[in-house]
Write a structure and sequence with these properties.
single chain; 123 residues; mainly alpha; membrane; transmembrane helix
């Protein structure tokens, strides 16, 4: 922290930890992309019917669940204070996991388009 930055405080005067936003958005983006790619590879079964809508729903649900679990783990590692303050910190920790979900959206959108247009599975 330099001289121009002042530590943040909540309305009760307690210091609030600085946001982890620095490189976390990039981590979340990479994590979401790798997660979506791995799920897409795992959901492709040779000889089974091609189900792009089903696959898209699984990719989206899994990305959201992974983001929520990651945010909750950060919250549990450092929660303290009153109950209301802990709920605000939990909401912030969960909100900060948006890059995981956003990074999975291109895969989800391509699967939805594939289902609408009738693209066949490669292979």
């Amino acid at each position: 922290m330099n001289e121009q930055q002042q530590p943040q405080a909540d309305p009760c005067g307690r210091p609030v930890a600085p946001s982890r936003r620095g490189a976390d958005w990039m981590f979340g983006g990479v994590y979401g992309t790798v997660l979506a790619s791995a799920l897409l590879a795992a959901l492709d079964q040779k000889g089974e019917e091609y189900t792009p809508f089903y696959d898209a729903s699984w990719v989206l649900v899994t990305a959201a669940t992974a983001g929520l679990a990651h945010g909750y783990s950060h919250h549990m590692a450092a929660h303290h204070g009153s109950a209301a303050h802990r709920w605000r910190l939990l909401a912030r920790a969960l909100w900060n996991e948006w890059p995981v979900i956003v990074a999975a959206l291109p895969t989800v959108l391509l699967l939805v388009v594939a289902g609408l247009v009738g693209w066949d599975s490669y292979g």
